[in-house]
């Protein structure tokens, strides 16, 4: 779907992005991870030509984007930024309607779509439609920013530190919502973040960048267990414990867990990570139960089981 | 002054004029403002986008702002003549800086992430400007327009100097005539206009951000509507007069022209400093001037005969302390050597040499005395000292230079000169307080300013130069123990003047002749 080849951006003598290549399949989420100055945001901004590449090629569905007028390109990509970028002089519904209006949608269609999105993002339309951004909380602004990017249901979504301006608690809550949002499930998403947990939480693939170069581009567990170089290894070292726990799903250790009765209430499913299981355990100090989505079989999870599983995973690699 | 008039009475009595001046004032202000917005706003937008021009454009507009307003109006005359056009041009230049600067700043200050988002959503540059940058910059831009408006209301009072009308007519007329009511009748409405427009614009400025989008449409409409108040007066074929603010308010001026001559001449109010030039450049046909002004010669003007005698005679003569004449009996005859020697055209010529040929009063005086065969080398005597005073303009400097040479050439007395005594009051006070011994004074000034003769008395004397002279001579002797010696010969009175060719072409010699070309029934 998106194919980036040898993308380079230099400012005078400074190289911001150097020879970066990657491709993203339809429906996939690629997270560009790195510290500030790593070139991740510049890379993202070249995808909708807010920054023009010095050299390299970008194809979307096989067509080079550098030969199209940038405005048309941008209207077909959702764009969410860290500072939200909401128009302070536009109401919530007007903010969301910006791109549909640029594309000259009929009024009624715009109205319906706006209400639909507000509803899905848990901003009751009757309450929020006509308010102005300055009255919204950070989380609400972020939802409006997301709704605005989704308004015309573009196949591609570019997100630049979308949760960066939120406090920790809100960030987790919104991220959770974000993962569960139907609208986002089929999108091809490229997301920029400096937050390792966010990258592991959301990315199908993670591209770790440093000094303008792509250090490693891989699925999350691979980055942890098969780092491509010393930079990748040391970058994740400090986060290693939590990341390991996040990168493994309960269904992967299914066979090592004891069976439990089928009438026991299960709070977890096979898709949850060991990290989430541990959080659940920490709540009650009692065993928690996991059910298999397909078979409905229940199994018991304790902290001991989890630790053994991690140990096993390490040995295997 | 028969009765002290209240400000309110004055304003009611002059309500027509006041209303018309106010409308003109608003018209000038907003026409200039409209043009400044039309040019300044796009300029501000351009320099916000092309940073490299910003310093140059802002610097240039800043320099314009530092030119004193009266000087800027002066610069406009050779380029645009007189009237509304140069006034609007000058006001426009003043309004430019705050508008350009605030547009520039306003756009620069728009939150970068908002502009980034707009761009990222696929808005074109034009859409970003109109839908995002302009509305968000609008409070700052409005602050600039507000500043420009207040500046313009203030500077527009000076438009009266170049015949563009407005409330300055009352203000400067009042200052010239020492009429406080008249000053206030112009100054108070001007101040109120400034306060009113400032307030209205502050309301717009404080309007909530969300309404700013509509303002982009509404604002030009409002400004255009206000500026359309001003309709350039249709030019017709009758003669156009330019009168100083002082002349407009004087009985021996415009009021007399109306009451005695029944002259309804189309006129504009204009500053004395530029009136002659404007006449020369054919922007005006008739002006009110002084009959011995050097500029008459410079610009080839002729004075019209005051056939109904509304202008009192201003014959110049030495005004001397009686004691000094008794102490040095030879003085009177020496001073009287000049009696009758300088007529209007000679005085005009002498003024011309000093004011335009920049010859210096001493040289001019010496040349004149040599031409007349009156010059004698100074005797360098030490019999005593005579102190001569003069008012602060060229003609007086010439006269006391001549007197100095005569006294030092014909007697053993020495002369000490005290030139540049501000005005009539200062000269006269110096004389009666024994600070000076003599200075040249004018009979009309003696009659109207010093003696402040009653109106009936003035009316009786008016037409006859000799009776005015005799009257002031008698009264000064009685009241102040001062002596008027024989008149020098010229009459530096108010006069209406025209260009020589035009006067000949239209066959106009007297003020009454003017009526053939001015009456609009």
Which helices and strands appear, and what pairs or packs with what?
The complex is a heterodimer of chains A (317) and B (521).
Chain A: E1 2-11, E2 14-24, E3 29-33, H1 40-47, E4 55-60, E5 63-64, H2 70-75, E6 77-81, H3 92-96, H4 98-102, H5 107-120, H6 125-128, H7 138-150, E7 156-160, H8 168-180, H9 182-185, E8 188-193, H10 196-202, E9 205-210, E10 213-218, H11 220-225, H12 230-237, H13 240-247, E11 268-269, H14 274-284, E12 288-291, E13 298-301, H15 303-316
Parallel strand pairs in A: 3-8, 3-9, 6-7, 7-8, 11-12
Antiparallel strand pairs in A: 1-2, 1-4, 4-5, 9-10, 12-13
Helix pairs in contact in A: 10-13
Chain B: H1 7-13, H2 15-49, H3 51-66, H4 69-80, H5 84-108, H6 112-120, H7 125-155, H8 168-177, H9 180-206, H10 212-227, E1 240-243, H11 245-248, H12 254-259, E2 266-269, H13 272-280, E3 286-290, H14 295-299, E4 301-303, E5 316-321, H15 322-327, H16 330-335, H17 344-355, H18 361-371, E6 384-389, H19 394-410, E7 413-418, H20 424-432, E8 438-442, H21 443-450, H22 455-461, H23 465-480, E9 482-484, E10 494-499, H24 500-506, H25 511-518
Parallel strand pairs in B: 1-2, 1-3, 6-7
Antiparallel strand pairs in B: 3-10, 4-10, 5-8, 5-9
Helix pairs in contact in B: 1-9, 2-3, 2-5, 2-7, 2-9, 2-10, 3-5, 4-5, 5-7, 6-7, 7-9, 7-10, 8-9, 18-19, 21-23
What does this structure look like?
The complex is a heterodimer of chains A (317) and B (521). By secondary structure, chain A is of the alpha/beta class. Chain A has helices spanning 40-47, 70-75, 92-96, 98-102, 107-120, 125-128, 138-150, 168-180, 182-185, 196-202, 220-225, 230-237, 240-247, 274-284, 303-316, and strands at residues 2-11, 14-24, 29-33, 55-60, 63-64, 77-81, 156-160, 188-193, 205-210, 213-218, 268-269, 288-291, 298-301. Chain A is built from 15 helices and 13 strands. Chain A is globular and about 60 Å long. The relative contact order of chain A is 0.12. Chain B has helices spanning 7-13, 15-49, 51-66, 69-80, 84-108, 112-120, 125-155, 168-177, 180-206, 212-227, 245-248, 254-259, 272-280, 295-299, 322-327, 330-335, 344-355, 361-371, 394-410, 424-432, 443-450, 455-461, 465-480, 500-506, 511-518, and strands spanning 240-243, 266-269, 286-290, 301-303, 316-321, 384-389, 413-418, 438-442, 482-484, 494-499. In chain B, strands 2-1-3-10-4 form a 5-stranded mixed beta sheet. Chain B has a 3-stranded antiparallel beta sheet with strand order 8-5-9, with helices on both faces. The longest helix of chain B has 35 residues, at 15-49. Mean pLDDT of chain B is 86; it is low at 231-235. Classes of the chains: A alpha/beta (317), B alpha/beta (521).
